[in-house]
Design goal:
This protein is about 35% helix and about 30% strand. By secondary structure, it is α+β, with helices and mostly antiparallel strands. Strands 1, 2, 3, 4, 5 and 6 form a 6-stranded antiparallel sheet that branches. A 3-stranded antiparallel sheet has the order 7-8-9, sandwiched between helices. Helix 4 crosses helix 5. The longest helix is centred in the last third of the chain and has 25 residues. The radius of gyration is 19 Å and the shape is globular.
Length: about 220
């Protein structure tokens, strides 16, 4: 593109510290541009359904795209976008991580801020990252009832076969069909034991909320 701007739509997942992860084809125009200049800007927005979209929050994350062979990046991306498994193994596709440098946040009218990359990203806990797959499998296999409580009671989501797709220091990701949801922890967790304690606390909280609702009705 000879240095000209070029915008495209891509699927994004994130690592444990919120570093963006992409899966893109080497044949795509945007990937060719990254090969010539790795600088990239990703726009995340939450304006759907607003009468005035410009009043809604959005953030532009700026950084540099780097090819990654880290297995965790692949696993987290496919957990977030299971449909991508169909083409993730194609030779022309590769996973990229975005080394975040800074971000521009528009949180609403008059609430505009530049954020440095180190302040935007969250904590990374190697001990938890190593155990994430086991935590997710255990919750999905043995604690479907807890996942249902998280989704329907704490997050006010419709009932359904909710599954956990990720666990990081700040919370867990849930999925039911095409619907996704995020449940935040009450504190930062750095290993599997602390994650287990927080997940149990959230179950107790769910039951307390449910009991209060039943009493009120």
């Amino acid at each position: 593109m000879n240095g000209a701007p070029y915008a495209s739509l891509v699927l994004v997942a994130v690592d444990h510290d919120a570093t963006p992860i992409l899966l893109i084809s080497q044949l795509a125009e945007h990937t060719r541009n990254l090969a010539a200049d790795p600088r990239v800007a990703l726009l995340f927005e939450a304006t759907e359904g607003l009468e005035e979209p410009l009043t809604g929050p959005r953030v532009t994350v700026m950084g540099r795209a780097e090819i990654t062979g880290e297995p965790r990046h692949r696993e987290r991306f496919l957990a977030r976008h299971p449909g991508a498994a169909v083409y993730a193994g194609f030779k022309d596709f590769a996973f990229y991580r975005i080394a975040v440098e800074r971000a521009h946040l528009v949180a609403g009218f008059g609430r505009i801020h530049w954020i440095e990359g180190k302040d935007l990203l969250g904590p990374f806990a190697p001990a938890l990252a190593e155990r994430e797959a086991g935590i997710v499998e255990h919750m999905n296999s043995d604690h479907a009832d807890a996942l249902q409580l998280y989704a329907t009671v704490l997050l006010q989501q419709p009932a359904g076969p909710w599954r956990m797709t990720g666990c990081d220091p700040e919370g867990v990701d849930l999925r039911c069909g095409l619907r996704t949801a995020r449940l935040d922890f009450g504190q930062i967790v750095t290993d599997a034991d602390r994650a287990r304690a927080e997940l149990l606390r959230l179950v107790r909280k769910s039951r307390e909320v449910l009991g209060t609702r039943n009493s009120a009705s």
